Amino acid sequence: MKQRIITAIIAAAVFLPIVIVGGFPIILLAYLLASIALYELLRMRHLSLFSIPGLISLLVLWIFLLPEQYQDFLTDLGYTKVEFALLAVLLFLTYTVATKNKFTFDDVAFSIMATLYVGMGFLYFIETREAGLVYIFYSLFIIWATDSGAYFIGRAIGKRKLWPEISPNKTVEGFLGGIFCAVIVAILFILFSDMDASLLKLVLVTIVLSVFGQVGDLVESALKRHYNVKDSGTILPGHGGILDRFDSLLFVWPLVHFLQLL
User: Fold this and answer.
1) Nearest 10 degrees: CA dihedral of 88, 93, 98, 103?
2) Cα–Cα dist 116/61, whole Å
3) pLDDT band, residue 109 (cuts 50/70/90)
4) Which positions, given as ranges, span the membrane (predicted)?
C-alpha cells in the first residue's frame, strides 16, 4: 500500500501540471502514454514493438493521435487517417506471407485492434482537454469516484459476484456503489463548476460513463486473464502498467464526446 501511495503521488505530480497547462505538452503526454500502452498490449501477445508489425502499429497510432490542427501534412499528401490505417492492413497481411505465417492473421487482427483501442482513447484525451480543463477533471473524478465507491462499498456490503470469470473480486453491490458515488461527484460539478450541461443530462451521462468505465476495467481484466498476465506492465510500481491505470478512461474519454456532453 505504501508503494502504491508513493507512486500515485509522484504520478499525480507529473500528470496534473501537464493536464492543467494543456496545449502541446498534453499532446506529447498522450503520445507517450499511448505508445507505452501499445507496447504493453503487444507484449501480452508476445509481439515486439520493435519489429516490423510493431513499428507499423506504432506509426499508425501516431498518425491516429494527430489532433486536427496538426493534420496539414496529411492533407498535403492527399491521404486521410483511414487510408493510412487501410494501408497498414495491407502491409500487415503482406507480412504474414513474408514470414510464412509466423506472423498470423490473428496477429494482424490483434495489432489493428490494439492500435484502435489505445489510439481512440488517447485521441479523445487530447480532444477532451482542448474542450476545457473542467471536462478533464470531470472525467478523472468520475472514474476515481467510481473506482473508490466500487472498492469500499464492495468490501463493506458486497456479496453477489459481478463477473467472477473475469474479475473475481468485483461485486454487484460495488458496481452499483461506484455509480452512486460518480453521480454524487457529478452533482458537485454542476454546483461548483461552469460545466455547460443541465443536471439531468449530466447525471444520465455520468451513469453511462460510470458503467462503461467499469466495463473498460473488465475489458482489460479479460485481456490479462486471456493472456495469463497479472499486470499490463511494471512502469508504475504498485499499480502495474499504463493500461492498468487508464483502462476505464480509454472508454470514458471517447464516450464524453459520443454522448455529446461537450
Assistant:
1) 100
2) 8
3) very high
4) 6-34, 46-65, 77-96, 108-126, 132-153, 174-193, 199-219
